[in-house]
């Protein structure tokens, strides 16, 4: 099944990603990402069964270099709080994970991974 003009509106906040839908049809999906949090966030789309199945680095962030070929669908680069960013991505039927893969260094020197903090959610494409 192919659909055109499917809008996926995604809210990014500390520490959650909330899409307006959990399932879309295969085809081109328009992602509208709104950073409703206080920190910079990004939206990464990965073909995977779950966030737990993704390769991780020592901080708990997704290790993009260890993803299977073709698993990384695309991303909306990091953007500031209060901003809205858009991107169109071709999705085939299957399971996906939407996530924020930013890792930042806190004032005390510890690394904080947004994925490890819970910024991921599944998306099913049928």
Provide an overview of this structure:
The protein has 126 residues and is an all-beta fold. The protein is built from no helices and 11 strands. The chain has one domain (3-125): Cupredoxins -  blue copper proteins (Immunoglobulin-like, Sandwich), CATH 2.60.40. 0% of the residues lie in helices and 53% in strands. Strands 3-11-8-5-6 form a 5-stranded mixed beta sheet, with no helix packed on it. It has a 4-stranded mixed beta sheet with strand order 2-1-4-7, with no helix packed on it.
Quick structural overview:
This protein is mainly β. The protein is 0% helix and 53% strand.
Instruction: Quote the CATH topology.
Output: Immunoglobulin-like
Residue stretches low in confidence (pLDDT < 50, at least 5 long) are: none
CATH class identity: Mainly Beta
Query: Oligomerization state of this entry?
Result: single chain
Number of strands: 11
Under CATH, the homologous superfamily reads Cupredoxins -  blue copper proteins
Please state the average pLDDT score.
Answer: 93
Estimated structural class: mainly beta
Beta-strand portion reads over 45%
Please tell me the total number of domains. Answer: 1
Total helices: the number is 0
With strands numbered from the N-terminus, the spatial order across the biggest sheet is: 3-11-8-5-6
Distance between the termini: 7 Å
Radius of gyration: 14 Å
CATH architecture level-2 label? Sandwich
Listing every helix as H and every strand as E from the N terminus to the C terminus, the arrangement reads EEEEEEEEEEE
Morphology? globular
């Amino acid at each position: 099944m192919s659909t055109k003009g499917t809008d996926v509106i995604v809210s990014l906040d500390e520490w959650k990603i909330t899409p307006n839908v959990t399932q879309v049809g295969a085809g081109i999906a328009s992602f509208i990402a709104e950073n409703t949090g206080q920190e910079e966030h990004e939206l990464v789309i990965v073909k995977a069964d779950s966030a737990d199945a993704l390769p991780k680095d020592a901080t708990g962030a997704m290790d993009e270099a260890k993803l299977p070929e073709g698993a990384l669908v695309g991303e909306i680069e990091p953007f500031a709080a209060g901003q809205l960013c858009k991107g169109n991505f071709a999705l085939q039927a299957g399971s996906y994970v939407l996530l924020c893969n930013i890792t930042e260094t806190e004032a005390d020197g510890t690394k904080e991974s947004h994925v490890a903090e819970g910024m991921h959610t599944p998306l099913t494409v049928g």
